[in-house]
Amino acid sequence: MSTTRYKIRLWEYDGEASVANAVTFDSFAEAEARFNDLRVSEEMPCVEFIKERIANGCIIGDEVLNVRQFASVFDAITKDKPTLAGFLRSLPVIEAPWDAAFQKRYCSSCTAENCDACANEQFRNNPEWWLSLPAAEVEQWRRIGRAGRLPSCKTRTGSFICEVPCGYIVEQTASAHKPRRIQAQRRRRAMLRRRVALTVALLTVAALLAALMPWSGSGAADKPKDTTAGTLEEVHQPTAVLLPSSGTVAGYVPNAAEVEALAKLIYGEAGIVPSTTEQAAVVWCVLNRVDDPRFPDTVLEVIEAPYQFSGYDPEYPVKEEFALLAADVLTRYRAERDGEENVGRVLPAEYCFFTGDGRRNHFTTEWKSTDCFGWTLESPYTD
């Protein structure tokens, strides 16, 4: 004749080996209560609830009724691909790696007029699809950045050297060229910083002159008479800065580091967008975050926050038209904070997120929201 008993087996780990200890019960209720009270940890990573049949003092059968195992946060979110994909999808980032991969693989060669009927919609905003991509392909996209291809030049020895801003060397035989390329990059950055400082100085002079002129406060700048001719600066330079005739804005000088960082952000996130208004919206999105308690309270901290603006790279060039636009938006923002109205804001304060489809950016109040801003504010720029 056999009897039934219940066992709680405790697996303990001392850092070197696992040791099993057991406690037996005659009552199922007592054993179950004991099992429910136990908590697993790194020191006791596993607890088993076992039912045993005993005959003549020997175990003739057993059945594991329940098992509780310790799992760290890493173990929990990486137990399988769908779980990890769900975790990645929940992260509040503006443009994630799978968004950039989607744009590189599908949007860059797409000829459709709009994205409403995308043939690859099942891959959009899909981290699980991204996790299935070949690692080498994703790494190549990361190195190339937003260039879309791997430009190279051929040396006298026949070696190919990558010329993308990151300075990545394709072949080891070209490693001797790296110091000279780094020095050239440093010289270019120094020259760009001087140009930004000159641009800010010119804006300061313009601000002082504007302070001496009557200001209507209408919020709409005069349109240039002809944008079809003239230099690139004349076409893309922002319209006149809206400055009040009194107050602190008349003597306000935008911070050079903020202007430089914002110009690089415009270059990376909206450089191919043909609308000055939409380029300015990228800057307003950053300033909206500065005023939002969920984000850092300085321009540089917002831009450089991890996993937020994938289009920003401190190595990007500072194009003069983007620096002028950044300084212009900063000046309008300062006027607004000083109580002025109709300063030329192109993006409402509640819009702190945007995603891109390879051609344009779509601004939303919440991450992954489908309710995009409809450009209802009057723009001071001539697009």
Quick overview:
With 383 residues, the chain is of the alpha+beta class. Among the domains are: 3-70; 180-364, no CATH class.
Give an overview of the whole structure.
- 37% of the residues lie in helices and 14% in strands.
- By secondary structure, the chain is of the alpha+beta class.
- Among the domains are: 3-70; 180-364, no CATH class.
- The protein has a four-stranded antiparallel β-sheet with strand order 2-1-3-4, covered by helices on one side. Strands 5-6 form a two-stranded antiparallel sheet. The chain has a two-stranded antiparallel sheet with strand order 7-8.
Helix share, percent: 25-40%
* CA-CA gap between termini: 92 Å
What summary fits the major beta sheet?
Answer: 4 strands, antiparallel
Please mark out the parts with pLDDT under 50 across 5 or more consecutive residues, or reply none: 146-181, 214-248
Series of H and E elements: EEHEEHHHHHEEHHHHHHEE
Structural class: alpha+beta
Tell me the fraction of residues in β-strands, as a range.
5-15%
- Mean of the pLDDT scores? 76
Q: Shape from CA axes? A: elongated
User: How many extended strands?
Assistant: 8
Q: Write down the Rg.
A: 30 Å
Q: What kind of oligomer do you see?
A: single chain
With strands numbered from the N-terminus, the spatial order across the biggest sheet is 2-1-3-4
Give the helix tally: 12
